[in-house]
Amino acid sequence: MGKLDHDAPRLSGTAALSLEGDVAAQMIAGIHRYLDFEIDAADEAAANALRSTAADLASAQAQAAAKRKEFAHNIGVVDERKPVPALEFVSSTLDPFRVAASQAYDVHAIRWPVLDGVTGEGLLLRPKQTPSAHVIALPDADCSPEMLAGIAPGLEPEQQFARRLVERGCQVAVPVLIDRAHTFSGNPAIRMTDQPHREFIYRMAYEMGRHIIGYEVQKVLALVDFFAAQAGPADVPVGVFGYGEGGLLALYSGALDERIAGVGVSGYFRNRRQLWQEPLYRNVWRVLRGFSDAELAALIAPRPLIIEAAPAPTVPGAPPIRQQEHARGQTTAPGKIEPAPPAEVEAEVGRAQPAYTAHNAADRLVLVKPAAADVGPGSDEALTALVEGLGVQPRAAPAAAALRDARTGFDPAARMQRQFDQIVGHVQQQLEVAWRTREAFWSEADTSSLETWEESAAVYRKRFWEGLIGRCPDPSLPFNAKSRPYGESEAWTGYEVTLDVLPDIFAHGILLVPRDIAPGEQRPVVVCQHGLEGRPEDVIAEGEGPYNAFAARLAERGYVTYAPQNPYIGFHEFRTLQRKANPLGWTLFTFAIAQHEQMLRWFATLPFVDPDRIGFYGLSYGGKAAMRIPTVLTQYALSICAGDFNEWARKCASTDYFSGYMFNHEWEMQEFNLGQTFNYAEMAYLMAPRAFMVERGHRDAVASDEWCAYEYARVQRRYADLKIPDRAEIYYFDGGHMIEGTGTFPFLDRHLNWTPGDS
């Protein structure tokens, strides 16, 4: 390519671009197709892994401990549990020691320690004879322990499987699960929401490497700790049986803890390719990379596993807002639970069967198909299979007695609030001390010299990219660059450009090329990134708006500028990408990074671009991109984060910040375990020794000046430790959520070695 022809119908070296319609929507649709393919590929990989388990059982058993450790991390079972020397009976001057009693068993309200500040609560059904087994009965989230024990209305007698298990001679503990109501979801001083309690906890916990699932698994395992340590007969086994959300917990707990001698799962077991359509509180990081339901079943083998194909509880979506609750924000993520087709349940059980066959335990994986659709959970066949699988003979069940709750002061809503508040409090405490956790995580970084720092940064960059953001395969397609004229001014010519990246995924943006570039001259480039629901044109067009046409202004200053279309556009259509990506260990930025990788490679082929002088400058969601894309793509010489830099973990997880993501519809913001590892300061560390800048308007409601200054101070200190304090800078201006430019444009000039007016 010689001298640029600014009158040509397209950029030299590119084919003609003929793409019509909404290009951003087509981009999002392509990423959806890519993810659908990868989900199917992960499903096939799970089938292959299960076949390999059967073929090489010794190797599978050797790897099981590592798999359990990884799975525990991914569901947030990471905190050391408190010892459980005894279960506490809950009584008062109003409520008796014994909640209910029959001739065969007593029912007690119980409490037990789990974590600092977190206890389990529920019921204990104690047979009056020595128990044949200890069973933890896990109801669905919207079913109380009292309903499962038959002392409160709500379940048909044949579905009260806690009562029916104690009648068979088992001692049964029934924990309270966090329900799907929204009564306590929010902060009355800020805003209440329609988020189910499980989602409200999920959002904050996910950012901190915890999970509502993990907290409840911990409660189950604390009971296992207690039962396993009993001084009674050593051969009394411990089992779990759960329905719906309780079925999930039974499966997960059994896969994690080999002390559980038998597992029953009702109304949950199925193929998880459509996990992204289920409620947000079931979203689990990397669950499709080795932890499908069948693969978890393989971790339970050769212990008995009973799968009851009872219909799952139907959950159509968010709990409805009552008329008197009109002030609640409608922020719940889309998601529903529907019963699995029986054939799907059977097929998933079939995928797990070879693992049991390899253990010579084929008869221990039992599929119970109720004779009628309305039978279960806890059919006679399922409960008998569990008890017999535990190695005990079920006792003859006495005639069911009508039990009455003897408590007069008991309030199940108050108990639910206690359980909810305890988990919220635990997450918020983790948030308060997260700075210390991150310091420990970063303790291996060596700041003694720039050379040692860059070696350390490479290690942490890999952890960030591969472990938290998610790294998909590198761009595999030729550029296939296409362009067409976008527009022009006296200072620049614009081209709309597309590049192929991966199958079904392309990059799109607008390139502005200054008219005064001399033949053979190479100019610096500034990638100008729009925010949420934005388009490349937004950063170029003159007029009112937060961007102040900064891409055009920089092109007038002599820079080549490029405005990419990033994939955060299309309301829930793009947010659903996050739902599909997370179970694969990916995020929305996985694909934005791949697009930018391909863009940077293409820039290096343009004769008028200096590939060593490329900067990134983004506002709002583009500021989020500025913290995630240049940090891992070291071809970027600098990054400027505008209108977004703050104490990010607190922004995502705090229940006390009015502008936080706990209270709005942007449910894709939380990234698993980021708060324990990479807050914005730590992300900025990955830029060093490259230049980094924050642009901050005093009146920007994204966060407060104080939050921004606190987080930035840690960045400046790190650059000072490395003896390069002049490469980090913060610029404040008296304005709002916008590109201001007064401090940032000279920063670009200095660090990209450009003097406006040079040619």
Describe this entry's structure for a reader:
By secondary structure, this protein is α/β, with parallel strands linked by helices. It has 2 domains: 15-39 and 434-751, 3-Layer(aba) Sandwich (Rossmann fold); 80-115 and 118-393, Alpha/Beta hydrolase fold, catalytic domain (Rossmann fold). The chain is built from 21 helices and 22 strands. The strands form 3 sheets. A 10-stranded mixed sheet has the order 1-14-15-16-18-17-19-20-21-22, with helices on both faces. Strands 2, 3, 4, 5, 6, 7, 10, 11, 12 and 13 form a 10-stranded mixed sheet that branches. The two termini are 18 Å apart. The mean pLDDT is 95.
Features:
elongated, ten-stranded mixed β-sheet, 2 domains, Rossmann fold, 759 residues, alpha/beta, 21 helices
SSE topology:
Layout (H helix, E strand, L loop, with lengths): L14 E2 L6 H33 L1 H18 L13 E2 L10 E2 L3 E11 L2 E10 L5 E6 L6 H5 L11 H7 L2 E6 L10 E2 L3 E2 L4 H11 L4 H17 L9 E6 L1 H12 L5 E5 L26 H8 L4 E4 L33 H17 L6 E4 L11 H10 L22 H21 L1 H8 L8 H20 L12 E7 L3 E11 L2 E10 L8 E7 L20 H7 L3 E5 L7 H10 L6 H16 L5 E11 L1 H12 L5 E5 L5 H6 L26 H6 L5 E7 L7 H17 L6 E6 L10 H8 L8
Parallel strand pairs: 1-14, 6-7, 6-10, 10-11, 11-12, 12-13, 17-18, 17-19, 19-20, 20-21, 21-22
Antiparallel strand pairs: 2-4, 3-4, 4-5, 5-7, 8-9, 14-15, 15-16, 16-18
Helix pairs in contact: 1-2, 1-9, 1-15, 5-11, 6-7, 7-8, 8-9, 16-17
Percent strand: 15-25%
CATH architecture term of the largest domain = 3-Layer(aba) Sandwich
Query: Largest sheet, described in full?
Result: 10 strands, mixed
**Number of E-state strands:** 22
Question: What is the CATH domain class of the largest domain?
Answer: Alpha Beta
Main-sheet strand order equals: 1-14-15-16-18-17-19-20-21-22
| CA-based shape | elongated
Give the full name of the CATH homologous superfamily of the largest domain. Alpha/Beta hydrolase fold, catalytic domain
Rg, please?
A: 29 Å
How many individual helices?
Answer: 21
